[in-house]
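Q&A FORM
Asked by: J.P.
Topic: structure of WxxW domain-containing protein

PROVIDED:
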Amino acid sequence: LLHPLLQPQHRHGEETCVWSDWINLGQPTSGSEGGDNESIKNIIAAGYHICSAPEAVECRAKQYPGLQISQLGQDVTCNPSVGLVCQNNEQGLQQKCFDYEIRVKCLTPTKCSGEETCVWSDWINLGQPTSGSEGGDNESIKNIIAAGYHICSAPEAVECRAKQYPGLQISQLGQDVTCNPSVGLVCQNNEQGLQRYLQSIRWPCLSKQ
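REPLIED BY: S.T.
REPLY: Here is the structure written out as tokens.
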């Protein structure tokens, strides 16, 4: 499984090291007990598809992307075990953390040959289908990117399945569902019979080395 939009850097045998995009979970919280928590645990909980045990991490302040974190004069945790954590009450007189970003390096199995690496995303589900004749389940590529998932906008292929029946092919469910690399997954209630299912989707992307 892979997190699309990751960029291959080098290989370890049958694995490829890839860096995520820069991740920012939002502005630091205020007050002496506040700060900026971009921990690995919080990033995964927020829906980002990163590995839980990265090979390495890099951190930077959003305001000063060209500076090393050691040049900022703040006491910040930045390591692969924790991620990034900054506490306001550890920052001297200023008592306020900068707005930090983090990116992580993960190992991903290599599945393609030559100069490209094919990688599958995790299964993605944006939530329950909406009700009513105009409702349905919209897991389109556009919607998934808008929801904050770091995937490529032009996947090589997609796979779709019903959450209730993960072992069945989409063609076995008896529903009229769009599932292709151009659109993603779209299911309209008014195009179905009596039975409706919750769908999920995944796909591989090609990443240049």
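FOLLOW-UP: The helical segments are 40-45, 141-146.
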